[in-house]
């Protein structure tokens, strides 16, 4: 997935500035990262699958941007750039899930008996 928007042009938001409820959040991390821990209610589409699965974003609310998150913000910045170039209103979440966890935001995991964590 090539970037057609420079990094300086990608809308970015810090986790601390995000609303706590109703956030249309797209997690572009890999399956193992997702299973280890993710934000409740997030939509999971690994970055490499995004072009083929972008239609799944149509289920998200259209009255606000799609917030894109990964582990630390690199992949999500590229995904947000691609989404914006493709006509979506996307915002990169600076610091990613690592910041999400540091800010004490809720996380759920899919590994039984293991506390959610950011890989």
TrEMBL record:
Domain of life: Bacteria
CDD domains with a match to the protein in the record: RHOD
UniProt protein name: Rhodanese-like domain-containing protein
Rhodanese domain location: 19-109
Organism the protein comes from: Amycolatopsis samaneae
């Amino acid at each position: 997935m090539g970037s057609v928007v420079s990094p300086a042009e990608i809308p970015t938001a810090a986790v601390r500035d995000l609303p706590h409820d109703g956030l249309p959040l797209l997690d572009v991390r890999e399956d193992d990262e997702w299973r280890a821990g993710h934000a409740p209610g997030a939509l999971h589409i690994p970055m490499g699958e995004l072009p083929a699965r972008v239609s799944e974003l149509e289920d998200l609310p259209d009255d606000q941007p799609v917030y894109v998150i990964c582990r630390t913000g690199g992949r999500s910045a590229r995904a947000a750039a691609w989404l914006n170039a493709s006509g979506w209103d996307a915002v990169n979440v600076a610091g990613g899930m690592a910041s999400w966890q540091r800010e004490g935001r809720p996380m759920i995991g899919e590994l039984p008996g293991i506390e959610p964590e950011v890989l």
